[in-house]
């Protein structure tokens, strides 16, 4: 088996230099595998401060990891050769949140599409380049005569974001990391961009990491989902399982807080959140414990391990301790949908199996 | 009798390319204690309409016409002095990003006091202390918050301070303009529930302005849908979600993602029109899947669908009058 991109227990700590004693752990022991053979969409959901954007920046090599490793086809991002790095830059693309700021307003939008073609020598002639651009625009449902030759301000937010999708598509990448791609787009246009993302996956075989604060859209587009809370994985796995039967109190709180567009399903019901500011100080365990209605003494002692509570899911909650655990390094294996090779099967006996994880492309 | 009656409100912005009709003939009424959702996408004029109700439009914008009766008094013809007295005391605004409008170096308690003092309410220190604690408790904040500065508080707490300011004089109408747009979903829920609780406590009516159909469904009794400066549909929240009359509302409702089963995404085709160059006839006709000849020529009238539910669409008229 082969992995395209793997994060192995990556951690990012900001601050803590000579000038500052205060360290902020933005992301802790995060693991993820993007399969090279079967394109999937992985939703990463979290509120502000959950570390989701840090995760994207680490995966793209825009920021060095403090601990752990990001591997592109089995090779550490830090040790890629020049040509390998070029290949990585082409195979892994990014779509940013703000479709207003990514354009240089002095250039026509054509410029944003021509640069990648020139940089990666994708076309031999102007006609070929033009043809490539038109095909990419068409793939995201845009007419080239309605978009090319215009300045960014002449287009709507939805159009601009779709051009960014087309731009990512131009390079025929294997993976697109999309950070909140629809949060600044109006509802009536949001659906079209989400539909584009789905189509990239289904028709063009591109994997996606869809980063969002919005669990509903993540549910709609993703196969797998990761729920982050304050930099740690609270729960992850198959999206139908996680959303249909959430096992972590935080996931349940998140789902119950969504304003469903149905006047007959209004907020209410059981209390899913408590406030215990007194236990927050000095808490060395589960980060959600101070808000969790099911807090137990053990929750404050040490962080819960990941319990493998199903074939393709994990939950970091002591309430799931009837299940075997899986190490943070190996968590990425739950995202592989194909039958796993023997070494990657679920470790039955707890944390000692640190070495039995997936060894990428060896 | 309605508490607030808005009729034919028009707000224009003067530009070098002619007037931008940001609000173009909006009429609605609000009953005491009622929660009305004013729903629209960006640029639909919903915030402009709300500001116009309080005559807070600044040049180059101006209120071109319209009547806004609050308890029988027309706010549009009140003197500046009278209008200032009515703001906060009778009609209060929680503006978009209100939490960032708190004064950064002024204690929370003093900021709440400001509005009350400017409306000529005089009371002793201990009386005020008592009242302030009561206000904070109403929005779920501890008394200690009064001596804190804004940077000590989380976004949700700041937004609750803004609710406390808005209700400090127990107004009859609260206008909440996207009060939770910058907040996380869990905090959003607590802020919206706080707003609903205090609104019921003081029996104020609320106009909730927003783009999120989910919030409308959770909060509003009645929803009005705005598009390109005009109201396209208005009705009780259940009716509107279950039997949307206007094709635009139908598309909006159909494009909402839910957690109960994956669905095909159906966005509305095309894009909202430029306010400088509105299409003739129905403003939605260039994007409408059911467009007819008459839609391109004439403004559709408000067609009643059921009690208090109407939509501005020719499709809803009997077949013989459509031509």
Q: If you had to describe this structure to a student in words, what would you say it looks like?
A:
- The complex is a heterodimer of chains A (about 350) and B (about 325).
- Chain A is α/β, with parallel strands linked by helices.
- Among the domains of chain A are: about 40-55 and about 80-220, Rossmann fold (3-Layer(aba) Sandwich); about 250-260 and about 270-335, no CATH class.
- Chain A contains eleven helices and 13 strands.
- Chain A has helices spanning about 50-60, 80-90, 110-120, 125-140, 145, 155-170, 185-205, 215-220, 240-245, 250-255, 275-280, and strands at about 5-15, 25-35, 40-45, 65-70, 75, 90-95, 175-180, 205-210, 225-230, 230-240, 305-310, 315, 325.
- In chain A, the strands form two sheets. A nine-stranded mixed sheet of chain A has the order 6-7-8-3-9-10-12-11-13, with helices on both faces. In chain A, strands 2-1-4-5 form a four-stranded antiparallel sheet, with helices on one face.
- In chain A, strand 1 (about 5-15) and strand 2 form a beta hairpin.
- The termini of chain A are close together.
- The model of chain A is unreliable at about 340-360 (pLDDT under 50).
- Chain B has helices at about 45-55, 80-90, 110-120, 125-140, 155-165, 185-200, 215-220, 235-240, 245-255, 295, 320, and strands at about 5-15, 20-30, 35-40, 60-70, 75, 90-95, 175, 205-210, 220-225, 230-235, 300-305, 310.
- The mean pLDDT of chain B is about 90.
- Classes of the chains: A alpha/beta (about 350), B alpha/beta (about 325).
- The interface of A and B includes residues 48 and 158 of A.
């Amino acid at each position: 088996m082969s992995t395209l991109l793997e994060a192995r227990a990556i951690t990012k700590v900001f601050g803590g230099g000579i000038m500052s004693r205060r360290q902020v752990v933005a992301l802790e022991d995060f693991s993820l595998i993007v399969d090279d053979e079967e394109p999937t969409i992985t939703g990463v959901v979290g509120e502000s401060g959950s570390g989701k954007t840090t995760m994207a920046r680490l995966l793209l090599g825009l920021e060095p990891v403090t601990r752990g490793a990001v591997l592109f086809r089995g090779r550490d991002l830090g040790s890629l050769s020049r040509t390998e790095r070029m290949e990585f830059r082409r195979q892994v693309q990014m779509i940013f949140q703000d479709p207003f700021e990514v354009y240089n307003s002095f250039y026509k939008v054509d410029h944003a599409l021509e640069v990648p073609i020139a940089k990666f020598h994708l076309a031999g002639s102007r006609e070929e380049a033009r043809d490539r651009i038109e095909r990419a625009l068409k793939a995201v449902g845009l007419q080239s005569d309605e978009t090319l030759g215009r300045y960014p301000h002449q287009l709507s937010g939805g159009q601009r974001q779709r051009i960014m999708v087309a731009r990512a598509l131009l390079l025929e990448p294997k993976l697109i990391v999309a950070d909140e791609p629809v949060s600044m787009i109006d509802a009536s246009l949001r659906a079209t961009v989400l539909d584009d993302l789905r189509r990239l996956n289904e028709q063009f075989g591109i994997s996606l990491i869809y980063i969002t604060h919005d669990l509903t859209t993540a549910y709609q587009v993703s196969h797998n989902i990761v729920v982050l809370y304050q930099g740690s994985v609270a729960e992850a796995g198959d999206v139908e399982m996680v959303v249909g039967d959430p096992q972590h109190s935080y996931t349940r709180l998140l789902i119950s807080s969504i304003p469903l567009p149905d006047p007959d399903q209004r907020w209410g019901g059981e209390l899913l959140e408590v406030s215990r500011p007194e236990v927050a100080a000095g808490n060395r365990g589960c980060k959600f414990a101070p808000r969790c209605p099911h807090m137990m003494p053990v929750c404050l002692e040490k962080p819960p391990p990941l319990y493998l509570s199903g074939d393709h899911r994990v939950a970091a909650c002591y309430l799931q301790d009837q299940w075997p655990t899986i190490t943070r390094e190996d968590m990425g294996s739950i995202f592989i949908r194909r039958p796993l090779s023997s070494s990657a099967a679920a470790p039955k006996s707890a944390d000692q199996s640190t070495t039995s994880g997936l060894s990428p492309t060896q | 009798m309605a508490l607030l009656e808005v009729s034919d409100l028009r707000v224009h912005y003067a530009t070098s390319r002619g007037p931008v009709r940001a609000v173009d003939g909006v009429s609605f009424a609000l009953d005491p204690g009622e929660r009305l959702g004013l729903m629209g996408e960006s640029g639909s004029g919903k915030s402009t309409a709300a500001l116009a109700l309080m005559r807070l439009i600044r040049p180059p914008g101006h209120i071109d016409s319209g009547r806004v009766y609050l308890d029988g008094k027309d706010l549009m013809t009140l003197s500046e002095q009278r209008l200032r007295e009515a703001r906060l005391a009778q009609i209060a605004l929680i503006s978009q990003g209100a939490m960032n409008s708190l004064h950064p170096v002024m204690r929370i308690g003093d900021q709440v006091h400001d509005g009350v003092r400017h409306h000529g309410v005089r009371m002793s220190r201990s009386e005020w202390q008592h009242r302030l604690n009561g206000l904070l408790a109403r929005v779920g904040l501890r008394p200690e918050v009064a001596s804190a500065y804004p940077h000590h508080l989380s976004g949700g707490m700041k937004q609750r301070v803004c609710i406390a300011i808005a209700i400090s004089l127990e107004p009859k109408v609260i206008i909440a303009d996207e009060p939770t747009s910058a907040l996380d979903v869990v905090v959003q829920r607590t802020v919206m529930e706080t707003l609903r609780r205090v609104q019921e406590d003081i029996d104020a009516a609320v106009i909730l302005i927003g783009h999120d159909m989910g919030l409308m469904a959770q909060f509003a009794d009645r929803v009005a849908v705005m598009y390109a400066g005009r109201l396209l549909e208005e009705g009780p929240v259940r009716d509107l979600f279950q039997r949307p009359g206007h094709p635009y509302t139908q598309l909006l409702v159909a494009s909402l993602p839910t957690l109960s089963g994956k669905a095909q995404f159906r966005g509305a085709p095309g894009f909202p029109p430029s306010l400088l160059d509105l299409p003739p006839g129905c403003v939605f006709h260039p994007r409408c899947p059911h467009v007819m000849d008459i839609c391109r020529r004439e403004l559709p009238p408000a067609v009643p669908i059921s009690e208090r539910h109407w939509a501005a669409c020719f499709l809803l008229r009997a077949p013989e009058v459509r031509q």
